[in-house]
Amino acid sequence: MTSKTKAPTVIKISGSLLDEPNALADLWPSVQALHEDAPVVLVHGGGTQMTALADRLGHTPERVQGRRITTDLDLKIAQWAIRGSLNTTLVSEAQQHDLTAVGVSGADATLVQVSKRPAWDVDGRTVDFGWVGDIEHVDPSLLEGLMARSLVPVVAPLGIDDEGQVYNVNADTVARALAEALAADPLLYVTEAGAVRRDAENPASRLATCPPGTARQGIAEGWIAGGMRVKVETALDALDGSVGAVYICGPGDLLARSQATEVVLEA
């Protein structure tokens, strides 16, 4: 029986891992062990699968600073690939590992309420992100009700505005917002790399911790970039809120976190 008194663990799974059967095989036993001790919420990405589907449709998505521009077609692709295929697959995988999961999206029960992202000025260019939502408010009552029944919510990163318009939302940002709303401890970003590295190709360059100064240096020098930049930035934001600890780890390292990077506020 899952404890209802302990802070929940929020686990964000990168979409790139969802095409790797061995990665999921490593992931599920750890999720099961964590769920024995405290409630668990899974948040998943799906950028890799969205891109693959876009390719099949002859469409090339655009990204700016690791964040996807969402056209009308991209929004449909997000709903098909993320809320449809991937979310259902993860619920099915959970069932195979003795976890009773419920697939939801941030649009369900106004879980993730958003507004349209305003245009950004990026390197002198005005960027309209299209149907990308910035989170305004999270209502965690849906998740709390599911967790109270020892169910595992599996959350697709969509959001909804006051008018009922659905938006694509960065999954790392959704995980951070949900972790803050639930006062999670810890928040785990599960990635293929399994850590922040000074050299992406060299596991020996792993950082055991990543404080703000190191994050700024890595972003300036370019070895923290793209999706990893978003993870590090949202991790630091989470620690400024009510989240107890944040790690960037691999799918087989959710428990020990011996090869992970802990994002910290002080060096």
TrEMBL record:
Pfam families (UniProt xref): AA_kinase
Ranges where the Aspartate/glutamate/uridylate kinase domain occurs: 9-249
GO molecular function, one term: ATP binding
Catalysed reaction, written as an equation: N-acetyl-L-glutamate + ATP = N-acetyl-L-glutamyl 5-phosphate + ADP
Pathway this chain belongs to: Amino-acid biosynthesis; L-arginine biosynthesis; N(2)-acetyl-L-ornithine from L-glutamate: step 2/4
UniProt subcellular location: Cytoplasm
Binding site for substrate: 46-47, 68, 168
BP-aspect Gene Ontology terms: L-arginine biosynthetic process via ornithine
Enzyme class label: transferase
Keywords for the protein's UniProt record, in alphabetical order: Amino-acid biosynthesis, Arginine biosynthesis, ATP-binding, Cytoplasm, Kinase, Nucleotide-binding, Transferase
InterPro entries assigned to the protein according to its UniProt record, in alphabetical order: AceGlu_kinase-like_sf, AcgluKinase_fam, ArgB, Asp/Glu/Uridylate_kinase
A GO CC term assigned to this protein in UniProt: cytoplasm
Site features described as Transition state stabilizer, chain residue numbers: 12, 231
EC number(s) stated in the UniProt entry for this protein: 2.7.2.8
Job of this protein: Catalyzes the ATP-dependent phosphorylation of N-acetyl-L-glutamate.
Homology family: Belongs to the acetylglutamate kinase family. ArgB subfamily.
Protein name: Acetylglutamate kinase
Organism for this UniProt entry: Salinibacter ruber
